[in-house]
Amino acid sequence: MKQQGFTMVELLSTVILIALVAAMAASSFAGLIAIAQSDRLKNDWVTFLNYGRSQAVLTQQIVTACPLINNECSKDLTLPWTLFIDTNENKKLDPDEELLRVLENTSDNTFSIYPKNQPYFKFHYASYDLRMGHARGFTVCPRGNIENGAFHLKVNITGRVRFQYKENKQGLLVHKRNGRWQAFEC
């Protein structure tokens, strides 16, 4: 009489094969999650800045975007970024000025802003007053690492937001700064 079923070796090899396939799928799934999170962060920033530009035009007032602490623009880039109508252009959210939107930031994202030490944007309703002395671009590194989907946003003089980066010959991400392509800094 012949017995039917599987041997222990067959069962173990099947279980090991399933575990290997699951491990490979999980690692590629983690990469997809990181890409999706980076894309969401990109979209959040573009939406946030475009909203500031459109509100300046619609309300015919100056709109400022910056990290706020105690209703004043701060250089602490880990704080949430705030859009507000800044009628007197003092980079402070005064009681008579309107808070438009807040973009929450996580402490594990790092930023590099230029010009240095001026982390704010000012949108003028006539769309010509985004000039020297106001941040014109910044690099965002999700979870503090270039490999996690870093991107560089540039805001031109009319307030238009766009991505600006490419890879150099070594495969490093670079962006145009002062007319030259330079490596990302995180």
From TrEMBL:
Pfam families, sorted: GspH, N_methyl
Membrane topology is: Single-pass membrane protein
Q: Does the keyword Iron-sulfur apply?
A: no
Annotated compartments: Cell inner membrane
Q: Which UniProt keywords apply?
A: Cell inner membrane, Cell membrane, Membrane, Methylation, Transmembrane, Transmembrane helix
Any idea where the General secretion pathway GspH domain is?
43-144
Q: Which Gene3D superfamilies match?
A: minor pseudopilin epsh domain
InterPro entries recorded:
N_methyl_site (IPR012902), Pilin-like (IPR045584), T2SS_GspH (IPR022346)
**What broad class describes the main subcellular location of this protein?**
membrane
- Tell me which SUPFAM superfamilies the record gives: Pili subunits (SSF54523)
Q: Which family does it belong to?
A: Belongs to the GSP H family.
NCBIfam families, alphabetized:
IV_pilin_GFxxxE (TIGR02532)
State what protein this is by name.
Type II secretion system protein H
